[in-house]
Every structure is written in C-alpha cells, then in structure tokens.
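Sample entry (505 residues):
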Amino acid sequence: MTQSPFAKDFLASWVVFLVALPLCMGIAIASGMPPASGIITGILGGILVGALSGSPLQVSGPAAGLAVIVFQLVRDHGFEAIGPILAVAGALQMVAGKFKLGRWFRAMSPAVVYGMLSGIGILLIGGQFYVMLDDKPRQTGLDNLIGMPGAMLHDVIGDHRYAAALGVLTMAVLVGWNVFRPKRLKLIPGALIAVVTATLVAAIWKFPVHHVEVPGNLLNAIHLPRATGFSEFRHSYMLISAIAMAFVASAETLLSASAVDRLHTGPRADYDRELFAQGVGNTLCGFLGGLPMTGVIVRSSTNVQAGAITRLSAILHGVWLLAFVVALPHVLSMVPTASLAAILVCTGFKLIEWDNVKALSRYGRIPIAIYAATVIGIVAADLLTGVIVGLILSLMKLLYKISQITVRFELDREYHEAHLHIEGAATFLNIPELASILDQIPPGTALHVHTAELMYIDHACLDLLTTWSEQQRATGGKLIVEWEHLMARFQRQRVDVSEFEPYVD
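Predicted structure, serialized as tokens:
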C-alpha cells in the first residue's frame, strides 16, 4: 500500500524538524544572538515562507552563511542594529523579486560562490571553536584562526576541559553516525543524535558548562525594533550592511533552490517568487527580533530525501518548531552550547567543498586565483569585501577574455597587397595593436580585411579602419572589406552602413 502525499509530507516534516531544531539554536549562538531568535526565524521560514515559496521543496530558516555578517554587526553596533537592517534587506529582496531579478542572482562566477562558501566556513570554524570551549571568540576572523593553537592548549587542559570534551564527543558521534548508521535509520539526523548524546552526558555527570538560554514564553523573545533604529540609516554602514545581507541571503537561497531542483522531478523553482517570499520572511524577522533567513540546502535536501511531495512538509516543520518551543522550553535549556558549536564547526568544514575547488582547477589557474582571493578577502577583512574582490577579478577576467583577438597580418610588397585576418572580438582595447599593424602598411597598398572568424567589432575599431582608408585613398591605397556580409552577420550592432561606405571599397 502506497502512502498518500499527505502522509509522506507529514513524515518528512518531522525529519526536517529534527534537523532544524539544533541548527536554529546553534546558528543563533554563532551569530551572537539569543537562541530563541533562531527559533523565531525557523518558525517563520517554515510556516510563512513555506507557504509563499517559489521552490516547493526548499526549506527556509537561519543559515550559517549569514552568521558571520550578523556576528560582526552585533559586535560592532549592538543587538538593536539587526532588526532595522534585516527589515530593509527583506524589503530589497521583495523589490528584486517583483522586478524579476531573481534569475540574475544566479549569474555569479562559480569561483566567487565557492570562495564565499569556503570563506564563511573558515570563519565559522574559527569563531565556533572558541564557543565549543565555552570561551569567547576574538575580535576578527584572522585573530580567531591565529589564536586557535593557544586556546586549545589553555582551554582543553584548563577550566574549559569539560566543554571541550562535550565538543569532541559531539563531533565524534556526528561523524560516527553518518558513517556507520544502519540503513533503516538513515533519516534520523546525526546532528540530533550528537546533541542528545552530549546533553545526556552533561546532565548525568553534571558538567559545569554553559547551557542554552531559552525563555519560558516565546513572546518574551520578540523584540520590536525601535523607530529610532531606522534613523540610523543616515550612517552609511547601515545601508551597506542591508545590501550585503540581501545580496548574500538571495545568492545562497537561489543557489540552494537550483540545487534542490536537481534532487527531484517535481515542479521547478520560480526564482522571482522565491526571492519575494524570502523578502517577506526577512522583513518580518526584522520586526520580530529573528535572524536573517535563507533557503538552506541541508534542510532542503533532507526534506527531499525524506520523501516530501509538496510545500506542506516545510510548513509543518515550522509548526512543530513552534509547538516544541511553546510546550517544552525547559528541554532546550538542558542543551550545552558547546555541543551546538561543535555541530557548526562540522558545518564549517562542509562549506569548504574541496571537490568544488578541484572542479574549478579544470578551467585553469585564473578561477583558482579568483577563489583564493575571495577566501583571503573574507577571512582577512569581511564577507562583503571578499565577495567584491572576487566579483572585480571575475569582471577583469571577462574583460580580458572578450578583448582577446587573434590577428594575422601578411604583406606582399611586390604586388602592393596586404591581408589582415581578425578572429575573436575587436574592441577599443585592441586599437593599439591594430593601429601598429596599419602603420606598417606602405602607401598605395590594397588592404584585404578578412572577417569570417570575427565575432564582434565595435564602433571604435570600425572608425579606425575607415579613417585609415580615407588617408590611404590619397596615395592610391584602398581598403577591401566584405562589408555587407559583415553587417548581415553582426546586425545587432545597428551600425549605419552608409556612415562607412564612402571610405570603403
């Protein structure tokens, strides 16, 4: 007897709920926010965004990729800055969705995307390593990485050894479960097993470690932004942060939606609708004190693997989060923060996909260089700087590629003829090369320009050729071009042939 779609969605929603619960709290802690703020985002991502989503099987919630941005904002500007920034970022996403810009967020160099994910992963490992030891992260991502050896020696054998033991236990159980779990239990998430194990060990042996702080009433976790918070947008960092948050959240969401489409054969994602739905969710999260949300591939792939058929699964997982927090908040307060941090350290390693780097290497050294520059920029400065560096390098590579032409020049002085073969794209960047060739042609020479392999020519190069032709006419030289054939093939240039005909033979 086959299960009905409702039964499949119902069962899948429980699996996703079990995956989402520890991640919602852990990402909140990594962001420097209360764990309840992650729960709020998980609930809204499930119930609200799940209902509006353009990708029916994608699951939305707090994402590790944005934890770095939020943590830096909380550290530098305080908790109160997050609400207004997130509300504006959500509004930007809604506008982008309405203007059908969703598909363009996917037009990003893979080298930049993979570099962004790897950079986030490295920062996540560096920051959560200290939380796993019940310690505080350092001021910058670079400081976190540099200080890890010293912290390991000081904390693991010092007062924080109990937290360190729980962190190591969590990672060992997580890795062991993923490797050795029975096939019939494959849908039970390793993160849940690891957190439950660490929680039981901490409770039985009464380890003196930090625990998750969850309010008894979820309404107490809702923090409406003050009106004065929006007046802070007179400072440029507020708008820049909102744009960065909207950009990263949108890119991560739509990349996740694209990946989810590869996992199932159902309806394809509507990227513009998905972007608008994420904007609605993030705007509401900004007003309720939640974390930024994105579509997340871990929960989404779990949803597909668990057999979900429709968006009902994502919606129900949000309902279960709400019910659990309302009915059993004391259970969550038993969870050690070191255990959740250990889960995120493992998540950071997953974000550094070495297979992606190997795939980039097949396309040469330049993509690897762009990837490395993006990672270094993120780790040494911040997320936005690293992404901008990667995008600039990608544009420079594109500009270099489109400006490349192959020019072959043959001069027959005996017959006063020359042949110029142009292949590729001739733009204003190639004028110095072409001009130097034209300067070599003796007066009275007939120049044959062969353009069969020319993909593009701009107005600047055309003007160079016609100007040279006009000058050569006085010495008996001429320019011979298959002009009609050229314009018929490249009519998108919309050049008026008559502008050049008087100077072209």
